[in-house]
Structure to design on (464 residues):
């Protein structure tokens, strides 16, 4: 059911949730998990009434907090990795572009089954627009999935690639940086306590020295870090990530790492405050986001440089106390590659397109619906097609943009279809969690990470 008014919503949650000032009491956990949470999350995403959307999102987040599901920073774990007190596994960070409620449930089921301590739920600046998911919506949908699946514990929401566009920066630097600052503010308000700053697009390889090449990158990263520290809630230290090499560009070097970090730390000191810096560093090792599609629609084999990744992780920990290096664009790698990441000390790995591919390529997805999405892409996104693209290449590169346009249709697929897709996703997630050695890490993570329940004021419509 989708509520279209606050009065209707209040009636729907009566006997299940009770509003108590700026908090919520859960009166009937079973009914909340069985059905009420479905109505709330569908209303939070698809209601035509803005007050109802706001009320549903608040109820989801506060009900979750009452159950022990709290948006949390991964900072303490990454600091322990930097001190070399914790090692041996790689934290998965997953971008959910479509079927977010159902995909997140599959992630929680796989994580609970494998006793995985930390999974980052993330969305990139670029993905927010074409998936039609602002941070407040993304947080509430993932939180609802936690309630639905029975998960209890810290919830790690992450802003991925909060990126400065080089093209827009060249035209109007102040406006482009302000755009990223506005997004950071919005994300923190939505409970994102893990944020990856990506100013690596501004690295200028034409400059004569490595430090000069990285200067705009580390200067802006320090400026944005300072802003994050000013905005973070009391008791929360937001985990901030930096990036030295744009994904899809040339492979990173230790020299670039040192130039970035030394310059970045110098810039942070200029604030006159003792500020915590980044907790991890993203590097380029030969991957591209989504992989490179061949003429038949299959993905080209990636020549990933594990030596670069290992060196970066080792140096970043030994010299700067970071958790290690971060690998982007990895979900389309061959299955046999994933156990290499924990073996070489990779702190975090970002996964996205592989799960999107499971949904689109599944035999369980109705063929007629798939064709409807593809027909839309062929008609509306022709401007994005290169002359050399085959139909298969064009569809592979653009089908991510069908997930937002057909969001409601995806969510309203038959229950049996959604269950089958969820099963496929859960199977692959369990496999990857095992490969990343992230299973049986729950006790380790929870000893280090202590969630802080940040107050969230009730909407006016619910206080009335």
């Amino acid at each position: 059911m989708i509520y279209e008014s606050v009065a209707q919503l209040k009636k729907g949650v009566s006997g299940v949730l009770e509003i108590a000032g700026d908090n919520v009491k859960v009166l009937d956990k079973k009914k909340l998990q069985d059905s009420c949470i479905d109505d709330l999350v569908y209303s939070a995403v698809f209601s035509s009434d803005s007050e109802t959307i706001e009320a549903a999102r608040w109820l989801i987040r506060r009900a979750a907090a009452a159950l022990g599901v709290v948006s949390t920073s991964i900072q303490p774990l990454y600091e322990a990795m930097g001190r070399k007190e914790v090692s041996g596994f790689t934290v998965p960070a997953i971008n959910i572009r479509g079927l977010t409620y159902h995909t997140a449930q599959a992630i929680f089921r796989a994580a609970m089954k494998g006793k995985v301590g930390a999974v980052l739920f993330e969305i990139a600046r670029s993905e927010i627009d074409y998936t039609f998911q602002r941070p407040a919506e993304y947080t509430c949908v993932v939180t609802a999935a936690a309630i639905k699946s029975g998960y209890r514990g810290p919830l790690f929401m992450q802003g991925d690639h909060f990126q400065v566009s080089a093209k827009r920066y060249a035209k109007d630097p102040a406006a482009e940086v302000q755009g990223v600052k506005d997004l950071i503010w919005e994300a923190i308000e939505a409970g994102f306590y893990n944020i990856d700053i990506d100013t690596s697009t501004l690295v200028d390889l034409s400059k004569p020295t490595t430090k000069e090449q990285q200067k705009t990158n580390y200067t802006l990263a320090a400026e944005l870090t300072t802003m994050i520290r000013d905005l973070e809630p009391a008791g929360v230290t937001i985990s901030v990530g930096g990036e030295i090499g744009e994904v899809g560009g040339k492979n990173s070097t230790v020299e670039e790492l040192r130039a970035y970090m030394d310059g970045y730390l110098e810039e942070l000191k200029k604030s006159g405050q003792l500020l915590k810096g980044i907790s991890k560093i993203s590097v380029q090792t030969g991957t591209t986001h989504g992989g490179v599609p061949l003429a038949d629609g299959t993905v080209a084999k990636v020549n990933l440089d594990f030596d670069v990744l290992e060196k970066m992780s080792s140096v970043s920990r030994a010299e700067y106390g970071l958790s290690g290096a971060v690998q982007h664009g990895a979900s389309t790698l061959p299955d046999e590659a994933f156990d290499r990441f924990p073996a070489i000390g990779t702190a975090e790995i970002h996964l996205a397109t592989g799960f999107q591919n499971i949904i689109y390529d599944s035999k369980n997805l109705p063929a007629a619906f798939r064709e409807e999405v593809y027909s839309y892409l062929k008609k509306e996104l022709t401007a994005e097609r290169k002359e050399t693209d085959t139909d298969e290449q064009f569809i592979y590169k653009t089908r991510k943009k069908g997930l937002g346009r057909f969001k409601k249709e995806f969510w309203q697929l038959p229950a049996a279809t959604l269950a089958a897709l969820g099963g496929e996703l859960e199977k692959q997630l369990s496999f990857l969690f095992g490969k990343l050695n992230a299973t049986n890490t729950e006790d380790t993570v929870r000893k280090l990470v202590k969630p802080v329940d940040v107050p969230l004021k009730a909407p006016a419509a619910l206080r009335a």
About this structure: The longest strand covers residues 153-163. The chain has two domains: 6-67, 71-358+419-448.
